[in-house]
Amino acid sequence: MAIEGRDETNAGRIRLGMVGGGEGAFIGGVHRMAARLDDKFQLLAGALSSTPDKAARSAAALGLDPARSYGSYEEMASAEKARPDGIEAVAIVTPNHMHFPVAKTFLEAGFHVICDKPMTTTLAEARDLAAIAKRSGKVFVLTHNYTGYPMIRQARTMVADGELGKIRMVVAEYAQDWLAERAEDTGSKQAGWRVDPAKAGAGGAIGDIGTHAHNLACYVTGLKVEKLSADLSTFVPGRQLDDNASMLLRFENGAKGMLWASQVAVGNENGLTLRIYGEKGGLDWCQEEPNKLWFTPLGEPKRLLTRNGAGATAPSTSVSRIPAGHPEGYLEGFATIYAEAAALIRAATEGREPPAGLALPTIEDGIDGLAFIEACVKSSKEDGAWVSL
Amino acid sequence: MAIEGRDETNAGRIRLGMVGGGEGAFIGGVHRMAARLDDKFQLLAGALSSTPDKAARSAAALGLDPARSYGSYEEMASAEKARPDGIEAVAIVTPNHMHFPVAKTFLEAGFHVICDKPMTTTLAEARDLAAIAKRSGKVFVLTHNYTGYPMIRQARTMVADGELGKIRMVVAEYAQDWLAERAEDTGSKQAGWRVDPAKAGAGGAIGDIGTHAHNLACYVTGLKVEKLSADLSTFVPGRQLDDNASMLLRFENGAKGMLWASQVAVGNENGLTLRIYGEKGGLDWCQEEPNKLWFTPLGEPKRLLTRNGAGATAPSTSVSRIPAGHPEGYLEGFATIYAEAAALIRAATEGREPPAGLALPTIEDGIDGLAFIEACVKSSKEDGAWVSL
Amino acid sequence: MAIEGRDETNAGRIRLGMVGGGEGAFIGGVHRMAARLDDKFQLLAGALSSTPDKAARSAAALGLDPARSYGSYEEMASAEKARPDGIEAVAIVTPNHMHFPVAKTFLEAGFHVICDKPMTTTLAEARDLAAIAKRSGKVFVLTHNYTGYPMIRQARTMVADGELGKIRMVVAEYAQDWLAERAEDTGSKQAGWRVDPAKAGAGGAIGDIGTHAHNLACYVTGLKVEKLSADLSTFVPGRQLDDNASMLLRFENGAKGMLWASQVAVGNENGLTLRIYGEKGGLDWCQEEPNKLWFTPLGEPKRLLTRNGAGATAPSTSVSRIPAGHPEGYLEGFATIYAEAAALIRAATEGREPPAGLALPTIEDGIDGLAFIEACVKSSKEDGAWVSL
Amino acid sequence: MAIEGRDETNAGRIRLGMVGGGEGAFIGGVHRMAARLDDKFQLLAGALSSTPDKAARSAAALGLDPARSYGSYEEMASAEKARPDGIEAVAIVTPNHMHFPVAKTFLEAGFHVICDKPMTTTLAEARDLAAIAKRSGKVFVLTHNYTGYPMIRQARTMVADGELGKIRMVVAEYAQDWLAERAEDTGSKQAGWRVDPAKAGAGGAIGDIGTHAHNLACYVTGLKVEKLSADLSTFVPGRQLDDNASMLLRFENGAKGMLWASQVAVGNENGLTLRIYGEKGGLDWCQEEPNKLWFTPLGEPKRLLTRNGAGATAPSTSVSRIPAGHPEGYLEGFATIYAEAAALIRAATEGREPPAGLALPTIEDGIDGLAFIEACVKSSKEDGAWVSL
């Protein structure tokens, strides 16, 4: 798969619609940039906001045909289905509670779906959605975007190849500080829905960022969390959901783990880090410096592996765009999810096998994410009892 | 100026052509991704290679209309000029020696030009080109892309605002190691032309990367180098151009400086760093971690300023796309050059003033770059004599 | 208190004896260097090994008077007590199981005691020892040496002064890798006793290094751990004690915490780190770079506070020996414990109040350390039940 | 050689005197701590200040016998020579201008000398002193203390063993900021003499810290600087000596170099760094994190070598005191110079060869240091002309 440019069959860019992502949104713009970077998609339609005015203004700002700016996602699904040049796929970038109904609607209408995480707000919905996706035969991609970072790809392959030996201990963290005070009182749209259980679901920090840390730990180690013991806290007064969560993990192979997710850890911006220790080696990675992966083979000096640098292997170089030392960042990692989604969608459209080497998060990861959230909440309510996922 | 999306007048994407950037090229792909990221350009035509087959294959891979894939840049200029839907601007991403003739051709044919650096291969050509550009009334943008990094923008404003006081000392470095051996013998197209004076011009490391360090030092300090004393070396046998250059600088305000450019410094990938010391403070920035800017006010603790983080100000936040802690990288900085180029081009097309706050490298910077290269060569030939720029 | 040189009364160096610390030992040499650095002690007697030959050889190597090299600690206590020029204080640097009997013997014989940690091998012994020390009226100093680092002193004062506001979350780690394989089979004396419950006590990693992390977290925050939920693991086959421990903490003020201690985390040497987050700020410190303390006031850029640098305050500067930027290390921090012990001992000898500003670990800290170990073991046996300390 | 404890012959501690180092001094205390750490010296006499009161007070604070606190170094030399228990060696820790007369006096009186750097204030004096030392048959040790850092020892051996191949480029820096303003006006004794040519000699920053950077570059590479082209600046008004110096270097093997010494670089504490690039590898070391040495073999990932860690070899481990991850600092490196001086002195006293493996700076290094200072001054006066050393 070439990262930049068209598919090997040069079938042209995939026609994309978007639900959510209007004025004041954050992740919608990220999805659009990610979709554009490698030129495999063109955004043609949108239900960008549930407020009609805002939807129209947002669509105009993005240069969409006004006729294809819809007042509701249902309208968009039917209208686009009816058009001969209608969209092929939809990106869902709403607050969490809308993921399920929107995804269901578009899958059942025959569209491929690219959906932000967490996949739904309950585990039951997540399982339903998986069944719906299966029945639909359509592609469903969950944007656990950190899995798109080249050095995460490399780390995953190193573990799979046994370079660390049997995994013993995993330390995953995602620390932020933007909710250390009541940002939800300042009119921040981002803060507002994330602290509202009706929109975010049962998880605060654990849903918003803990799921990323959990997903990444599992993605890289290839291991599932068997059970966890969690202690959720709400430090900022008046908040309903957790804003800090610490937990112990037990993985299926006997490995142990710790996970910390916090949105009140003053001095942290997006401190997603992963450390993995096995019998034969250790790995250390930090999202804020994603082009670096520290690897220590037992008894040898620590080595700095860099994206496209000495020691980089195909799993990372194949999803890199530029030479070592020229940093790729968050958008590039996100774009890789889109590039791989494009490859899956093209293959599905053409009825052939997708190219080898794709390493996208699956709908199964989405189910695991909700199982994680629900286990956290349950364990914490039971004062840290071990809860199976 | 909104970074993502269309111009405030929503005039649609700028029609872009490209010269160079076909198969095996590096910087062409970078320009294309940079142009796409913020959705202000669409690539419609190309003379992607001087080898016709390669040009056609490259155009097809990019999904260009075959009719608009040209065998030569001259052909492209006339054909596109003749089309009612012809391109408005051209991106020049060839080896250095072609910058001048291609830019001249397109400027004179009435196109806006976005040109890679160094601007030309001689100072005389650079001055000619400036005159040509002036006569043409067209926009000329030089992609000294590192000036697009948000924290470089912030650093520049901090210096201009006097936060460092009068500048005393500047230390600029650009260290790489990819030419530590004869990469030019391995079939690397990138290495091949860079070590060939007929294509690269009189400068090896100084032209390819020293110009970036020089440009960045001047861009951030707002000071010009008055004279320099250089020691150029060619460490790898059989090479005609310098692969390591060290020099002393004297700036117009009495500040002193050092500049080191090397392509043989084993262990360095793209180690472009800038340190600036004034009477009241010091700054430290490194391209490989571009989201961070270290600032020490005299007598106070060192502070870490981050892109979009606490302490970030408008010059950096206005060219940021995503929140603090989610790293932006090389492509985003490059894209900012394109976004600002788009604003300039739109304003020119519509006969109005460009929006405030643009901070693009100018054609004057291109002249300074060639003056820098020629001064380096002259000084080194004269055993380090001080040479005025 | 002057760090270097004699006490303010210039009473000369304190006469010191040592139990343990003969050939092949590690911590004995550390205590000796620490005691010497500031010239407040002179080592005059020793029972350096339970093997008489070794004891004599070790004493000779250290230049001790052969008459004052003893075959047993009991003999040393009585003989030194009988000498008019006998020692005033003893340093106990044996494996853990000997701390109690040796300390008891010397305290009851009227000597001041400087004892390595953990203080004893059981909580019951720890409490006994505290009572014995109290009855004796002698000084008892526990070498939780990391508390001697200047920036730890500063951190502690910052928390006490409210610069972080109410503490919410504490993350403490101590990660090593030297026991990732069976070092105990290689003849390593250090590894040998640490994995032997008869000598180390009930804790492996938790006793050897977890206690340091626990002590430091409490020392800096001024908070006690109220209860903990621990998961102890023994990853290396055939080992009886834990070599990896992860746990959740709850502090008395409602703060939460995590603590990880591991001796099998490949790639870690002595990764003792402490991160503290309060309502108003965050702190980050790492033992391997002890001269640096990262401080982020809420909503402001992160600041790098350095030992004796800008932003350093009396609690750190008063225990610093050399200027900022000239690193002090482990031995200097350890030496500060000795310097403060000397001040305590001198004051006790002279029947006056010790100077203000001492911040030594107390015998209470030793009790807390054993309570920590026993709580960890109990919690882990009960599958992570919360256990009060 | 054992680092801690007595010489292999167990001959007891060397009797040491000190000239300079009284109240308000900096480096005297450093020498005393360094001499004490490994227990190979005992300080017995001093001419600690040229002000008699101050000398007496300082001696008392250090616990010296008042009879051995002298009012002048000449008096000390004769009196100590006359005592059967007189000192064997003297440490000279005065401002620079006194190094020569004091060293001459003590050497000629038959004492071994340990002298701070720069060795003298002129090259002529340096050569004289070398001749005097040679005639005396006594040991002369110059405390270019940074050569005592374990990882510097390792770096030196790696270069000597060819792990970097032929050296091409050396970048040495020593940046501070404590003289960014007129500290000499604040009553700082340290600042006062350093900016006074009568006491410091012809070099300001180049003498005080530039000599360290020069010495370290030569020490590690094993190469001499053949010529240099320097640009000295005095940025702080009213100052007579340079406070910032930048220069180009040419080494005897054809390698090039840059050296920057500054005392006005705001944000730098003791930023002594050394980067060395050869045909086969690169090294990077920074004094502020001295336990780390970065090594990149050409075409392989960068490796972090640590003191006593994986990859550490005898040249570093033999001068280490404590395990990897427990940082040793400035005083330990300094102490190694003293430990090796002790070994030299013992060997001289006993008329035998010194033990193998000593790697102390020699009197030849002291001559090179003065040649460096004089070449810098001359080159700068001649507007950067190349001057041979």
Molecular structure report:
The structure is a homotetramer of 389-residue chains. With 389 residues, chain A is an alpha/beta fold. The first copy, chain A, folds into two domains: 14-146 and 338-358, NAD(P)-binding Rossmann-like Domain (Rossmann fold), CATH 3.40.50.720; 150-320 and 367-388, Dihydrodipicolinate Reductase, domain 2 (2-Layer Sandwich). Chain A is 35% helix and 22% strand. In chain A, the strands form two sheets. A nine-stranded mixed beta sheet of chain A has the order 13-12-11-10-6-9-8-7-14. In chain A, strands 2-1-3-4-5 form a five-stranded parallel beta sheet, sandwiched between helices. In chain A, a hairpin with a 4-residue loop joins β8 (244-251) and β9. In chain A, α5 runs antiparallel to α12 (363-381). At the C-D interface, α1 and α11 of C face α1 and α11 of D. β13 of chain A pairs antiparallel with β13 (302-306) of chain D.
CATH classification, class level of the largest domain in chain A: Alpha Beta
Topology, number of strands of chain A: 14
Number of helices of chain A: 12
CATH superfamily of the largest domain in chain A: Dihydrodipicolinate Reductase, domain 2
Topology:
The structure is a homotetramer of 389-residue chains.
Chain A: E1 14-19, H1 27-37, E2 41-47, H2 52-61, H3 73-82, E3 89-92, H4 99-108, E4 112-115, H5 123-136, E5 140-142, H6 150-160, E6 167-175, H7 189-194, H8 197-200, H9 205-221, E7 225-233, E8 244-251, E9 256-262, E10 271-278, E11 281-286, E12 292-297, E13 302-306, H10 314-317, H11 330-349, H12 363-381, E14 387-388
Parallel strand pairs in A: 1-2, 1-3, 3-4, 4-5, 6-9
Antiparallel strand pairs in A: 6-10, 7-8, 7-14, 8-9, 10-11, 11-12, 12-13
Helix pairs in contact in A: 1-11, 4-5, 5-12, 6-9, 9-12
